[in-house]
Amino acid sequence: MTGETPVPAIAQQGDAGRIVTDHFARTPAGRVPFLEKVSYGFGDAGGTVITGLIANFLTFYYTDVFGIAPGVVGILFLSLRVFDAVSDPLIGIMADRTMTRWGKFRPYLLWTAIPVGLSCFLTFQSPDLGHDGKVAYAAITYFLLSLSYSLNNVPYCALITRMTDSATEGVACQSVRFAMVAIASFTVSVGLPIMVRELGGGDLALGYRNGVAILSLAAVAMFLICFLFVRERVAFAAAEEPPLRTAIANTLKNDQLRITFVMTLLLIAIFNTKGGAALYFITYVLNGGTTYQAFFFGIATIGGFVGSIVVTFFTRRFDVRSIYIWVNLILVAGHVGAFFVPGDHPTLWLGLVGLCCIVLGCTLPLHFTLIQLADQYGEWKLGMRSSGMSFAFNQFFVKLAWAVAGALISGVLVLVSYKAGAGNQTPLSLTGIRMLSTIIPGLMHLLLAIAISRLTLDRATIARMTAARTA
């Protein structure tokens, strides 16, 4: 797994079932060129444009721009996850059985680029259809966005298993990936409020439509860059691709993967809860306008960028699992403490957000490295590997986390009798908004630390997995 010995161009059938094609045989095992790591990062940068719009703006857009009641928004988010429970595993199966001249997972970035961009643009339209018509329109467009995003992101996440088998290179790829994600997140979170103001001329609906159109086009371009410049150099023999029932059963038998699914649910729910509540928090607790929103989101995303780079220095010395536990425990203390910081110190809050997001930025490279290792663990323990299926189940929990976060935000807003507009806020509604940005994410970080502690993917286990693969 260290990737320091060359791999023969055509491996024997018994060599862990792997082959490496002649075209990439010149590349040392597991090594990924830096420019290819950047290109790989573009794939998730494009995805982050989509998820950033969903996490940071869609709930606020539905309630305060499109005019849908908060409770209805929560029901909408949850109900569509029933479909994902069926569609995402099917997408994983389809990806595992795909083989083209471009590879197994790469071509999905080409095939889905335009559908994802178009469905995102349509989601942020605001036709005048009456309340019921608006709910129907939101349900249809959000469904199309969710489906096209899965068709793009499930194969993308599995792509790393075809790029390298090295844990060290895996962390490096994920670190570059999430540095790119931070840049994309900065572009969305800072750029969209400015575009809404400048391109809307005081009309929020028009501003969102024009701003999202630009960002959707950018996402399409990023997907295509990833497709063009990333290569699949590690392949698995066709005999390793099991029947449908066996693939599902083996995925669920992998106890380490099952734990990572819970971890994914919690981590993405944290990001989406904080992101979805941020505009409410900035607008009504910190009394910030468009300029302050840009500073707030900008500092947050810069912090995430720094964290995604810094974490690689720790992984060279310490166990990935242990680092991830401690990162979450630090975030528990930070979020709980932040609840008691008054909202009338907006400059102080910018500093706190920056510190928090540096630590938070460490989580994603660690998280996806552990998912990759859990996928490899399944091959080690069960003798069979279905990366598309593994990441499909993970993707389902990503979108379940979207729904949980959306329902959580909507539920809290309903409980505190939230009404749009600064003049309609009460001490109760402001407390609820504060909790969505502090106490509630802090409790989820605690649950995440507990889940990570159940993993056995420490250095000793990884060393045994490496020895078995190279024997």
Summarize this structure as a short list of keywords or feature phrases:
471 residues; two-stranded antiparallel ribbon; mainly alpha
Describe the protein in words:
The structure is a single chain. This protein is an all-alpha fold and 471 residues long. It has helices at residues 34-65, 70-96, 107-123, 130-163, 167-200, 204-229, 244-253, 255-285, 290-315, 320-338, 346-360, 363-382, 387-415, 427-437, 439-453, 459-470, and strands at residues 18-19, 235-236. The chain is globular and about 65 Å long.
Offer a quick outline of the entry:
The protein has 471 residues and is mostly helical. The protein has helices at residues 34-65, 70-96, 107-123, 130-163, 167-200, 204-229, 244-253, 255-285, 290-315, 320-338, 346-360, 363-382, 387-415, 427-437, 439-453, 459-470, and strands at residues 18-19, 235-236.
Main sheet? Answer: 2 strands, antiparallel
Mean pLDDT: 83
- Which stretches are low in confidence, meaning pLDDT under 50 for 5 or more residues running? 1-29
Rounded to an integer, what's the Rg over CA atoms?
22 Å
Q: State the helicity in percent bands.
A: over 70%
Number of strands: 2
Number of H/I helices: 16
β-strand amount: under 5%
Distance between the termini: 12 Å
List strands and helices in order, with pairings.
Elements: E1 18-19, H1 34-65, H2 70-96, H3 107-123, H4 130-163, H5 167-200, H6 204-229, E2 235-236, H7 244-253, H8 255-285, H9 290-315, H10 320-338, H11 346-360, H12 363-382, H13 387-415, H14 427-437, H15 439-453, H16 459-470
Helix pairs in contact: 1-4, 1-5, 1-6, 1-8, 2-4, 2-13, 3-4, 3-6, 4-13, 5-6, 5-9, 5-12, 8-12, 8-13, 8-14, 8-15, 9-11, 10-11, 10-12, 10-15, 12-16, 13-14
